[in-house]
Amino acid sequence: MRKYTSVRAFREKFSFLVDRKAFKYNIYFLIFLGVIFLLSAGMGEQIFSPWKVINILFGNSSSFESMIVQSFRMPRIIISILVGVSLAVAGAILQSILRNPLASPDVTGITGGASVAVVLFLALFSNESNVLTVSIHWMPLAAFIGATIIAFLLYILAWKNGLSPFRLVLIGIGLWALTKALTNLFMILGPIVQASQANVWITGSVYGVNWSNVQILAPITIILLIIAFIMTRHLNIQELGEDIALGIGSKVERQRLGMLLLSTALIGSAVAFAGGIGFVGLMAPHIARKLVGSSFGNLLPLSAIIGAVLVLLADTIGRTLFLPVEVPAGVFTATIGAPYFIYLLYRQRNA
Amino acid sequence: MHVLETKDLTLAYGDQIIIDHLNITIPYGEITVLIGSNGCGKSTLLRSMARLLKPQSGAILLDGETMMKLPTKDIAKKLAILPQGPVSPEGLTVLQLVKQGRYPYQKWYQQWSSKDEEIVQNALQSTGMAELSERLVDSLSGGQRQRAWIAMTLAQDTNTILLDEPTTYLDLTHQIEVLDLLFELNEKEKRTIVMVLHDLNLACRYAHHIIAVKDKTVFAHGKPEDIVNRKLVQNVFNLDCEVVADPVFGTPMCVPYGKGRNLNGVKDNIVPVHA
């Protein structure tokens, strides 16, 4: 009968209420992620069994096998997981502060902002022979700045005696369209080679990432995640609406701004390394919500894991199914995500 | 003991003054009901008393201190508000909702102490929601849902509870159910309750104290038996009526005129039983 377990430690200095069902789902999906992880590491032109992969990871293998798995596949897998986690958590946060299940990094225009910045970056910093005049390492920073600018624009434009979720969504969709248009404009104006390069990136791909990318992204993601998990109880009351949140003692505006920045940072860092892998931030929290409800202590971890599963699955399929051609992961997430978005809109029509 | 009063309070939306220089004290440990016609500012007044609306000038005092200067979490431990028609997010259970009432007492690493548990359980018990605590809020009936929200405000463990039209959208049975619950909370736990009600007759039944709002200020306030009469209804609601004794409780009951099933109204040909 009891569905909850009270966890208390150190004379109740630490105390939480754990939902057993949600806890189980988290474990299931974590195991599922582990399975995909092993399969993904074993798949490609050289195929290894999951058992073999484990052996390779523990160093019992030839240097050739180790190189394929450790140097080529592993960074890509880890980046996929980090990006999936970031986008999903950012999506869940946006859905809470906007009180709208359709809100996501894409629909608010924040992903688009990052994409514009990248295309602009490519257009500005390359010479006639399409060679970048500055280091490619600056590109992620450009993406991050673009995302933040759009988030601030969103915030400023939607601000009128406070921040109404409804206005935020409408303006977000407007910004989404604007960034799309700007991206196209810069691509048409720029050289054709860059256009195709940028296009792969915008669609979202973890192609060609390496361990140094992991070294940058991993700490950022982990720190942001820790902040997100500390914020869960604020996210919970944001969902109850502004009046309730205020009445219950929350500093609503300040928290909303903080959370918006948090989600921007998550999106910016994800987009910087993997481009606009679309609809993950929409789908992952949604699936999680269906399974464990909307209490953020349950929702946030499960969204994160599902996000990781989605991106890793999409990338694994993308790089193995049509060999030797690689299909960007974003193509697959969009193929599932876009109909999902339409389905959500369809369901909302009666609401 | 937490006393709520307004001092020279002026409320406005932009240039439009809603309440003008109002001084009033909410009696401690009683049920106070704000009445008035639509748009008279009674809800605005209630919201401002819960610091959801900043006064244009003047102040709300909580225990003699200006509310806008108090930390919002401290206020949340003394005073709870249930706004009108709250909407619960999809997929939240009653327990998960009620638990949110503990927010002002919690830290991120301390979210379910024994005390939290005890108070949440009490809130569920006294609202009769204990059996339904695992149910999703969206799956409940209107009355149950409102009781769940009231349980959440109870979990805040405050002495004063403000409610903005807690009976809106409820059928008569559920209106009585919710008001009975609030009365019990007042009677058994000595909580001060302030609410906005539309139904004047129910207001007279449950309130110890009525505040009638009109023309940006308080038209009258006091015990229903002392202040609710034909003249008050005419002035505050702009409605002609008879005020008789409620046949069940003997509290004032307003029977409005109007056309009924007679185009000329009733005033000319029917003499009221007693005036």
From TrEMBL, chain A:
Q: A GO CC term?
A: plasma membrane
InterPro entries of this UniProt entry? ABC_BtuC-like, ABC_transptr_permease_BtuC
According to its UniProt record, where is this protein located? Answer: Cell membrane
Instruction: Please provide the record's keywords in A-Z order.
Output: Cell membrane, Membrane, Transmembrane, Transmembrane helix, Transport
Q: A Gene Ontology biological process annotation? A: siderophore-iron import into cell
Main location per the UniProt record? membrane
* Membrane-spanning segments: 25-43, 77-95, 107-126, 138-157, 169-193, 213-231, 260-284, 296-314, 321-346
One example GO MF annotation? transmembrane transporter activity
Q: Which CDD domains match?
A: TM_ABC_iron-siderophores_like (cd06550)
Q: How does it sit in the membrane?
A: Multi-pass membrane protein
Report which superkingdom the organism of origin falls in. Bacteria
Question: Span of the secretion signal?
Answer: none
In Pfam terms, one family for this protein is: FecCD
Please report which protein family the annotation says this sequence is part of: Belongs to the binding-protein-dependent transport system permease family. FecCD subfamily.
Protein name from the UniProt record? Iron ABC transporter permease
UniProtKB/TrEMBL annotation, chain B:
The record's listing under SMART domains reads:
AAA
What are the ABC transporter domain coordinates in residue numbering?
4-240
Q: Name one GO biological process term.
A: iron ion transport
- Which UniProt keywords are listed? ATP-binding, Cell membrane, Ion transport, Iron, Iron transport, Membrane, Nucleotide-binding, Transport
Q: Where in the cell?
A: Cell membrane
The yes or no answer to whether the keyword Transport is present is yes
Q: Does the keyword Cell membrane apply?
A: yes
Q: Which CDD domains does the record cross-reference, listed alphabetically?
A: ABC_Iron-Siderophores_B12_Hemin
GO terms for CC?
Answer: plasma membrane
For membrane topology, the record states:
Peripheral membrane protein
Name of the protein described by the UniProt record:
ABC transporter ATP-binding protein
> Which PROSITE patterns does the record associate with it?
ABC_TRANSPORTER_1, ABC_TRANSPORTER_2
What domain of life does the native source organism fall in? Bacteria
InterPro entries the UniProt entry points to? AAA+_ATPase, ABC_transporter-like_ATP-bd, ABC_transporter-like_CS, P-loop_NTPase, Siderophore_ABC-ATPase
One family from Pfam that matches here is ABC_tran
> Which SUPFAM superfamilies does the annotation name?
P-loop containing nucleoside triphosphate hydrolases
- GO molecular-function term, one example from the UniProt record: ATP hydrolysis activity
